[in-house]
Amino acid sequence: MSSPAPILLLSVSLLAQAPRFTVRDAIQAEWMRQPLPFTEAQVKALPPADRARLERTLQRIGAPGGPTLLPPELDKPTLGVWEAKAAAARTPQQRFTALFFLNRLKSPKALMALAGISPTEARTWPRHLHLEAAIATARLNGSEPSPELLAFLDAMRKAGKVDPVRTQAARLRLMMAGKEAGLLPPVKATPGSLLALMDAWNRAPWSQRRDLALSAFSTFSPQAPAWPRLGLIQPSQEVLDRSCVGILSRLAEGIPSPAPTEAFQVSGAPWPCSAHPLALWYGFQALAKAEVPLPGLHPALAKVLPLGASNPLLLGVLLPALRRQDPQQADRVRAQLLEGPEAIPRAAAIEDLPTPPEDLAALTRRTWRDDQFETQQTLIHSYARWKMAPEDQKAQLQPWLQHPNWTCRWEAYQALLKLDPRTPWPGAPSPTAADRAIQDEAIRLAERGKPVRLRLSLSGRRRLTLRFDPRVAPMNIANLVLLARKGYFNGRLVPRVVPDFVVQMGSPVDTMDGGPGHTVRCENSLAWYGPGSVGMALSGKDTGGSQFFITTNATPHLTGRYTRLGEVEDPDRALKILDDLELGAKILSMTVLEP
Asked: What is the mean predicted confidence (pLDDT) over 533-542?
């Protein structure tokens, strides 16, 4: 049930004779997510810093009638707005951001964001603000570089600010699209370059990749014919061993949807990492792309542990493929996961239900108690997917407005709003012990006002330091600090590495699933997501938990949509580590250095 006491106490504080809106007030208000009782006169009477803090808090709460955080160009980007911004762009950040959004809008004028740029600007262009992929995308959308841009890029090369791997990946995309005749000289094979070149290759149509995909990866060997075709120097066996899970993940991601049968009929001995849980996690998702039964697969799927899915998590990932390949086995697995003790697999089983189950009430009770929001979110979304009558949907959704997790209340509110625009804003739940611990630590860090530093130690004697700003995102930083002090991240794997974009980690099950058993409110800001930024991974508003990501290039579309915590220290060293990181690398420890 909701607890009015904290809201009442905050209101009394806010309505004092000399209005203030302190750091503590902001943290408590943003956690409770309730509209604030300030009058216009009281807002004007606030000190400027308090007034700015109140404005940001109201934006983050997001209640109806409140101010919005995102400016129109980020909220709903349009060609006209971004072409105007491109014409006015002068700084590297302005130029990159305009080029990025024009590319997303598929503008044939994207390179106007770099118009007028001169070779002398290469000296001050940020080393890690990479243009290779963006310029290739612009060319694929119909732009061609001007002589002045070519001169600038030549100056960037001479200044050592052009990355050979990113350049080769861009050239591979252009070559496969018929924009270039061939590749550049081959680049050194590392776990990072293998992922980058396979990502670039995967962006071409299957018809262009088919022959290589079906023949060149049949053996796990430095002599395999795939590597020179991708623009790589022959890899060492040590590099291949470290890269094995990553390569299999890219082969899985590269299978088109719907998938042709031939994509699953590659001959050759199993790769040494083919039974690795992360390799299976990616592979089972690829298998779901096959829309017709695959010859010879039924015996392996009919086993008690189909295709080596040795735990409920993997069975949940395999379930969509089972549904198409062996419906009877899928029914058995779904029933097992629905009634089992693990929450994340239950989410997959709920997603597999085409209609509400007869025991929906029992399923709701189990899901209500789950410690993973993923399951609750899936059930809340399923009422509409099942096409239940509006009144039946409302009857199922209303109780969720009283769930002890705010994020469940928020999801139910959003679903109810579609059925009835008059749905009132949900009340605040009573804080749990975890909520109180996060708030207390957030207040301590924010009032202290100094950077928070955490050391991330990875397998292979690799270390990087994260520097967070608790004045901007105190609750999310406090949450990670508390988890790190408990050793939560120690021994976990890195399940997502996307070159020139992000590295993501923090899952308790070594995939991109799950969290710590609670969620944290988003603390979005307009701080730019430049290279080396650290942000919270989400599956919707206020769904942050333990998973976070580090950008390896600027990602302007994340600004204002994902909580930005801070950035890496010593980016020259840290980004080199991240650019060469293998999928499945192990976090040895995450240690709080300060405070």
From this structure: 97
Q: Rounded to an integer, what distance in angstroms lies between the CA atom of residue 65 and that of residue 53?
A: 18
| Distance (Å, whole) CA 373 – CA 4 | 24
The band of 10, judged by pLDDT with boundaries at 50, 70 and 90, is: low
> CB-based contacts of 156: which residues, under 8 Å, 6+ apart?
122, 125, 131, 162
The strand pairing partners of 39, in sequence order, are none
Query: Which amino acid is residue 461, in one-letter code?
Result: R
Residue 161 token pair: 């600010």
Rounded Cα distance, 230 and 234, in Å: 10
Backbone angles phi, psi at 296, to 5 degrees: 80, -5
Model confidence pLDDT, tens digit, residues 85-108: 999 999 999 999 999 999 999 999
Which token pair is 157?
Answer: 């090369």
Residue 49, CA distances (Å) to 33, 46, 138, 197, 527 in order: 21, 8, 42, 48, 17
Please give the Cα distance from 495 to 523 (Å, whole number): 24
- 507 vs 513: CA distance, rounded Å: 6
Task: List, for residues 24-70, the tens digit of each pLDDT value.
Answer: 999 999 999 999 989 999 999 999 999 999 999 999 999 999 999 99
What H or E segment, with its residue span, contains residue 83? helix 79-88
Coil vs helix vs strand at 520: strand
- 502 forms beta bridges with 498, 551
pLDDT 10s digits, 420-436: 999 999 999 999 999 99
Write the CB contacts of 241 (distance below 8 Å, at least 6 apart in sequence).
272
Q: Return the percentage of the chain with pLDDT > 90, whole number.
A: 92
Question: What residue type is assigned to position 399 of the chain?
Answer: P
Within 10 Å of residue 269's Cβ, how many Cβ atoms? 9
Token couple for 402: 């009283």
Tell me the sheet residues that pair with 456. Answer: 464, 590
**In angstroms, rounded to a whole number, what is the distance separating the alpha carbons of residues 581 and 572?**
15
2 strand-pairing partners: 429
Buried b (16+ CB within 10 A) or exposed e, 394-433: bebbeebbebebbbbbbbbbbbbeeeeeebebbbbbebee
Q: In angstroms, rounded to a whole number, what is the distance separating the alpha carbons of residues 519 and 373? A: 8
221: nearest Cα among 186, 271, 280, 283: 271
pLDDT in tens, 543-556: 999 999 999 999 99
User: What pLDDT was estimated at residue 3?
Assistant: 45
Largest CA distance in the chain: 78
The predicted pLDDT at position 4 comes to: 44
State mean pLDDT over 9-18: 53
The two three-digit tokens of residue 21, written as one number: 């809106």
